[in-house]
Design goal:
This protein is an alpha/beta fold and about 80 residues long. It has helices spanning about 10-25, 75-80, and strands at about 5-10, 30, 40-45, 50-60, 70. Helices cover about 20% and strands about 35% of the residues. It is globular and about 40 Å long.
Length: about 80
């Protein structure tokens, strides 16, 4: 079983979760069906510091097995997600 985190919904809230988990040493993969990109770079400005991280980006339909999932999509799309 994998211990990676997957985040579905790569907007502001999903990005915040991803960056905070990465700051804590966790492995995070972003799920986004709208792009063909394979990675996404995110930045967080907090307490006069800049934290940047590049995350792997996968299509949710072809993602590796998921053991931990955070869903941060908007309410109308949550059911289909």
């Amino acid at each position: 079983m994998q211990n990676d985190w997957h985040i579905l919904g790569t907007g502001a809230i999903g990005g915040l979760w991803a960056l905070r988990l990465a700051q804590g040493g966790q492995s995070v993969t972003l799920l986004d069906d709208r792009t063909q990109a394979t990675e996404r770079r995110l930045q967080l400005h907090a307490d006069a510091q800049l934290f940047q991280h590049t995350f792997p980006l996968q299509n949710s339909r072809t993602a590796s097995p998921i053991s931990r999932l955070i869903v941060t999509t908007k309410a109308p799309t949550t059911e289909s997600a």
